[in-house]
Amino acid sequence: MSPVFPMLTVLSMFYYMCLRRRARTATRGEMNSRRAIESNTRALPINVEIVQYAKEVLDFSSHYGSENSMSYTMWNLAGIPNVYPSSGDFTQTAVFRTYGTWWDRCPSARLPFKRTPSTFCSQDYVELAFEEPVYPTAVHILETYHPGAVVRILACSANPYSQNPPAEVRWEILWSEAPTKVNGPQARQFTPCIKQINFPTNLIRLEVNSSLLDYYTELDAVVLHGVKERPVLSLKTSMIDMNDIDEDEEEEKFGCGMDTLNKQFSIVTLREWPTNGYFDKLPYELIQLILSHLTVPDLCRLAQTCKLLYQHCCDPLQYIHLSLQPYWARINDTSLEYLQSRCTLIQWLNLSWTGNRGAISVSGFSRFLKVCGSELVRLELSCGHFLNETCLEVITEMCPNLQELNLSSCDKIPPQAFNHIAKVGSLKRLILYRTKVEQTALLSILNFCSELQHLSLGSCVMIEDYDLIASMMGAKCKKLRSLDLWRCKNITESGIAELASGCQLLEELDLGWCPTLQSSTGCFTNLARKLPNLQKLFLTANRSVCDTDIEELAANCTHLRQLDILGTRMVSPASLRKLLESCKDLSLLDVSFCSQIDNRVVLELNANFPNVFIKKSFTQ
């Protein structure tokens, strides 16, 4: 045979693959505008483009602002821009709770879950509803301060204003990219190239990762461009981009991986091979170690190859630590049902962001925990809006060994349900940020959960008397190492005194935006003297913090690593120099809006203490 024929065969196969891929992509209506075909395509028929701002903020994971205010809250994303094109720190924008890596470098930091796919890096999200469902042609995000946090944009098939919810809710990624460092904090309009989808949407979700930012990102508005009729793209193309094939494989890997989880785990008929090759020569433990590096969808696929690997992929030892958060859009009752037999030994489980809009039912969640809850030590349920009192009751009954429970932003749980948590006396970490926990339930929890080491009560607005709560902590929670009282509205020097006297192991304390604390009462100097192990102290927006407080910290809290005194008018450069000289481990110092600390002082301190990140925010 002539050597030309094999080459022709290869070229034919390649051409067939490319055409097949083009046809498949076109039928889905998912041609990506970034790709090489865009210069020779046109939309048929021509539609009038609709431009609309977000009508409503439906859901979000965190925000800097208060639950009873509009300043720095996600609700500012609804409507027309308030700030753009201006740059700077403005209260009329939407701001998430964290930035940088500082929250990962403090005593309350949690260990990450293994097997998290490298493509999933989202830390926070916000979901926006628009008036008219459209086929998106563009999404404009108006960022007014420290841009670059948005890493993923998704569209949902469900219409939040429809009276008839769909049987199946589908999410599609319009755009996704790893976090990037943007030079400068100035405002910008971010308009990534989005792919086309085959359904109209008026529900857009932004996911962010702020780990590379020097300060809080601020978003002003989101603009959705789209057409009412589905665009049909012609296939007049003169060239094929080699990168398309790889990209398509990645899209299918994300899009189908968890969709087929249910089917793949239920497969019982597998082809039998006479031998398993080199796998027959490997110890069982070594194969388990190799497979431990695979993600959950990859385990699903591998389980279909042969009985040996099916056995390994279904071994409960592969599911000791399981995070389903990266696949939040595709997890449902059926997924949990098929995972049950494989999770009988599970110790860490992350269901954060999952189950919303009816994907996980109370009965489905309860059935799973009744089978898999006995060994659970850590349970992450952040933003689980399907949770109710029955779910908390099942958790406390079926998870007797539970030590860590995260209910952050589970704002649909009724207040009385939190009483059940008091039954879990082994708890060491409890996160109740943005929940409706009330005083009676919290007092019961503190009374019976004396092993608590980490407690987050940030933005818990239904607690009436934080002094009483602080007194109970001081009396019962002697092992407390970190405490978040962010935006606590009524704690006074009395509560701080009880807390400091009883919880002397505290290493982290967040008293940001607590307006009832006044330096003149001696509460901050008392903290400094009673809590020598402090590594992180946030006194954000407390205008009364003064030189005496800073000097007491310098004298007594030499292990201090992070200090936020944003907004104080009473701190001088001299006291900051004493602090920096005394606290050799200090790495973060936020002096934004401190009237006595101007840019010249910051430059001088940066020059003399280069290992400290000194933040000075501004407004134009």
Distance between the termini: 76 Å
Instruction: List the total number of helices.
Output: 16
What structural class do the secondary elements suggest?
Answer: alpha/beta
Question: Whole-number radius of gyration?
Answer: 27 Å
Query: What is the CATH-assigned architecture of one domain?
Result: Sandwich
Count of individual beta strands: 23
| Strand percentage | 15-25%
Average of per-residue pLDDT values: 88
Strand order of the largest sheet: 12-13-14-15-16-17-18-19-20-21-22-23
CATH class of one domain: Mainly Beta
- What is the CATH topology descriptor of one domain? Jelly Rolls
Largest sheet: 12 strands, parallel
* Low-confidence residue ranges: 1-44, 234-258
The shape is globular
Q: Could you name the CATH homologous superfamily of one domain?
A: Galactose-binding domain-like
Helix content: 25-40%
Protein name: FBXL4 protein
GO cellular component, one term: SCF ubiquitin ligase complex
Keywords: Leucine-rich repeat, Ubl conjugation pathway
Organism: Machaerirhynchus nigripectus
Explain what this protein looks like in three dimensions.
Residues 276-331 form the F-box domain. InterPro entries: F-box-like_dom_sf, F-box_dom, FBXL15_LRR, Leu-rich_rpt_Cys-con_subtyp, LRR_dom_sf. The model is unreliable at 1-44 and 234-258 (pLDDT under 50). The strands form three sheets. Strands 12-13-14-15-16-17-18-19-20-21-22-23 form a twelve-stranded parallel β-sheet, covered by helices on one side. 43% of the residues are buried. Among the domains are: 49-227, Sandwich (Jelly Rolls), CATH 2.60.120; 501-619, Alpha-Beta Horseshoe (Leucine-rich repeat, LRR (right-handed beta-alpha superhelix)). Strand 14 (378-380), helix 9 (389-398) and strand 15 form a beta-alpha-beta unit. With 620 residues, the chain is an alpha/beta fold. It has helices at 4-28, 243-257, 261-265, 284-291, 296-302, 307-313, 333-339, 362-372, 389-398, 439-448, 466-476, 493-502, 523-530, 547-556, 573-582, 599-608; strands spanning 43-44, 50-53, 56-60, 94-95, 124-145, 150-156, 171-176, 188-190, 201-208, 218-227, 232-233, 321-323, 348-350, 378-380, 404-406, 429-431, 454-456, 482-484, 508-510, 536-538, 562-564, 588-590, 613-615. Helix 8 (362-372) runs parallel beside helix 9 (389-398), helix 12 runs parallel beside helix 13 and helix 13 runs parallel beside helix 14.
